Amino acid sequence: MQNKGLIKLFALLFGLVSIYQLSFTFKANQIEDAAEMAAIEKFADTEEDYQTKRNLETIRYLDSLKTSKIKVGENFESIEVYNLGVAQYTYSEVEENAMNLGLDLRGGINVILQISVRDILKGLANNSKDPIFNKALDDAEELQKDSQDSYLQSFFTAFDAIKGDTKLASPDIFANRTLSDEIKFNMEDNEVKSIIETKIDESIVSAFEVLRKRIDKFGVTSPNIQRLGNSGRILLELPGAKDIERVTDLVTKTAQLQFWETYKTQEVVPYLLEVNQNLVEANQSKKEKEEVADVVEDQEENTSNAIDELTGQIETDSTNVADINPLGIQGYGNGGSVVGMFLSKDKEKVMEHLNSSKNRASLPAEMRYVKFVWGLQNEESEFSELYAIKGNRDGEPELSGDVITSADQDYDQVSRPAVSMQMNSKGAKIWEEMTKKASETQGNIAIVLDNIVYSAPGVSQPGGISGGRSQISGSFTLAEAVDLANVLRAGKLPASAEIVQSDIVGPSLGQEAIDSGMKSFIIALGFVLLWMIFYYGKAGGFADIALLLNILLIFGVLASLGAVLTLPGIAGIVLTIGMSVDANVLIFERIKEELAKGKTQKESVKDGFSNALSSILDANITTGLTALILFVFGTGPIKGFATTLIIGILTSLFTAIFITRLLVDWYVNRGGKLDFSTGLTKNLFTNLNIDFLRKRKIAYAFSGLMILASLGSLFIGPGLDQGIDFVGGRTYQVRFEQDMSVEEVKNDLNAVFESAEVKTIGGPNQLKISTKYLVEDSTTEADEKVQSMLFTTLQKYLPEGMTYAEFLDGSGDKKIGKMLSSKVSPTIADDIKKSSIWAILGSLVVVFLYILLRFKKWQFSLGAVTAVFHDVLIVLGIYSLTWRIMPFSMEIDQTFIAAILTVIGYSLNDTVVVFDRIREYFNENLGWKFDTTINKSINSTVSRTLNTSLTTLVVLLAMFLFGADSLKDLLFALIVGVIVGTYSSVFIATPIMYDTAKKGSATEALKNKVKEDAEEA
Fold this sequence. Notes:
- This protein is α+β, with helices and mostly antiparallel strands and 1017 residues long.
- Helix content is 58%, strand content 13%.
- An 8-stranded antiparallel β-sheet has the order 7-8-6-20-25-22-24-23.
- A hairpin with a 1-residue loop joins β23 and β24.
């Protein structure tokens, strides 16, 4: 082997870089463990809602490491947490360089957001009242339920169906003042459609950028945000995000920042008292037979008393509240912008009374557009502050958040978290006028975000505030201040965003996945290392060294590239361990063949590596192609599975071809003797002479029966258990203290949700609950409603006293409650199903073409693809026949599609190795009969086939028995696939090729191919 020195240097540097990259992962874990310990010490498990408090404290601890600075000389610098001597790193840098764990390992949230194209269209049409336009919007919503088209295409279809003489370029629709430069009255609909398509695309790009800017500042490690085609959907992955509510608010809020003048306490209190009095009289009229309570005789006197004498608390008899204080007034402001205090639980009732048309009719003319708004809720208080802002006919503020050019988290004069803002020149001018007026009238300006008053400061500076610089202060936390600054800085979404698909994984479930993943990984690795030494002796030890380096490189590359390691990703690595052995097995088997021919050890090693190269490349390329298709079509964890599989294939090739060769050459050159076998395995599988082709009719009959049974179960019954990925709905994984009765829980849930599926997952105390209740409603309000109903229904099975917050967290000491939740809208489900079909078909086409290119004979491609179809149908059939009786979930979802594609890759791997040997034997033994050549080829690969299949199976079984419950369906499909794939490569693919090829032409094609390869070399 040439350039040994260069390969040694590259391997050494590659290994050192991998160790360097992984060191950041160990350091980050150490810091996070310290943060969790600090939280545990601060909040004892005897405190109410202690787990939520611990989570927030952990976040605060880590945030402080990122944001806090220490004084070094005259400067303030970030805190160093990792010192390598030659370089020092802050926590942000350590976290950035650490390996990124997916949400299934770390917990977190993975969502697909749907930007409302309907909202964008309404905005482009200036909220047109045109009946044709608005009916087309409604009709498009209906069309979307059964269509793969985008919402915009459905809108155009709906509009064309009902438009009559109405045109898109109507002044009442798109030919308005806003779009007057681009859309003219005389334009045809097709011209307008093209412009609108461009505008919609620009708006979605704008939404994408807004979300990206918000998420980049959120503080999680390696967030992933990407636009999904032209559908208006955006994928967002936030591993490690524990505050799910905070994440949801951040990505869905439109951030409507507005600045309003406010009324003062004394201006609004008369109206509050009048509304209260109206309610008193209404209650009195219902109680004619009861004693009428004293009524307010002089409203003006009471108003004066309320302002001058009340100091914040109205004393009431709780048994008689409805008679004298039905509005529930708890106090008044002190003459400033707060007009009243109410119990938080009464907010909805209070707003209903204040905004009723009957009561508002009594407002003075100058106050008829008053708008009542609640202040930012202090979680530690049971009271809420009410503000009254000076509205107008159009409901538009004098100044909005569009003028904000920058915003930063800051602190106010008393060191409370605040947000500083800078406005553009237009906003600065209006702001100066507003603040000047407020200064002269001693009034207040309410800073309102999403209909909540964050603060309503007065202005003491004479002449107003110039320059456009201002500050929002209020009783919010540091995290809320950071989020607010992020939202203001990024801007508002051009339309509302709904979460149409989500996966939320609790942190404890993620930790369990890591623990079980590592356990299965170590068991599988231990078996493979021992097996290689048992079967190949010292040479197996060299293969083990290469394998360990391979694992180091895989993790090092993942960390270096910033790739995300997921639970299916660990499965991909473990599968790579089993499959990477294949390259060494191929090499060692070829060396043994060369030794059997009487060649010297050096010659045998050289020729063995050379002869095995073609099979190794073909086998890995076919597997790599299916992994690549999986990467293109997959999302989230499936993409992680494909990523690790691709990286594993590349590093396996490097370590098997170069590192194993270096070690073997080193040992042989120093006089060592390698037999590539042990006393027990020396003559194993040698001189086999099985007539495989003669048994092909039996195999055809057996496979035919299996396929018929599979097709019958698929089309007649019981069919497949389709997961929410394919049908839509919400799924929750809930853990209980005791073993549960599936039927009992199912009956309870059916009474509430009308229909629900309940299955045991992992153990009898853990259930997977799926429901289509409110499946068409993708709002966060619907999510909360379903989740709340689930808790209420299951409460009798949960520990006594467990709160709703503890149930959602699912990560207390006993780890009881919701461990995982997923949501898929029906539209997304249709798209997933469609992309899954394309992924499978695409992989078959690509592989067919590759084998055709390599072997120059369509019969080889036909045999390989037929075997793949055979394997896929049997795996589907086994799932269809057994999903009702298996003790683990066997839903057909994206993970299952990943398993099917992996089975395709593995089956092809086996088949290509046999085909390569057939091609080689044609060249070496031109006088042999066609069937003799094929039989000899299969016999010569039996040792390799059984070795590779056995190691791969043991690896998969280790993960199946000791790995995470959520992977059992994936692993079961792979185990079945490996068994069926090994069988089909010998008894289906090769016989099909033999039966469809004419002996003479097949022989000539193979001879020509061998000659071409020789000439190219």
